[in-house]
Structure to design on (127 residues):
């Protein structure tokens, strides 16, 4: 069974990676279409509509990471709805960044092992 849990370090990665990638994409598109103009503070309206898919993609990735992190804590996925309440969202994300996950298996799978795909499997000693 594949685990639907991620640890704190992997959560940090999945929260920062889409923001960084989205910012780079946004900057490349802005410079290539010449949408940034010093005379208008908001820029070209057509360019602002190109920003929506980038922000939506980043939000979906971060929410999926939050659900997986909630599963690591043993909480249900619906708790992620609290991320849409002002001030409560800050507390929720602090909990997700600070609280350690459950060390044992829970109903959402095995405990996470960051970069587990690249680690060598442990050798079982034979007696």
């Amino acid at each position: 069974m594949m685990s639907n849990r991620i640890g704190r370090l992997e959560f940090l990665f999945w929260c920062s990676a889409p923001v960084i990638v989205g910012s780079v994409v946004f900057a490349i598109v802005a410079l290539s279409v010449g949408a940034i103009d010093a005379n208008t503070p908001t820029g070209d309206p057509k360019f602002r509509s190109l920003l929506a898919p980038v922000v939506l993609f980043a939000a979906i990735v971060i929410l999926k990471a939050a659900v997986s992190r909630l599963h690591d804590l043993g909480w249900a996925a619906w708790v992620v709805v609290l991320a849409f309440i002002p001030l409560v969202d800050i507390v929720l994300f602090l909990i997700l960044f600070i609280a350690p996950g459950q060390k044992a298996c829970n109903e959402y799978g095995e405990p996470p092992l960051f970069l587990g795909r690249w680690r060598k499997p442990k050798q079982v000693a034979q007696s």
In short: Residues 8-118 form one domain. The chain has one domain: 8-118. The mean pLDDT is 81.
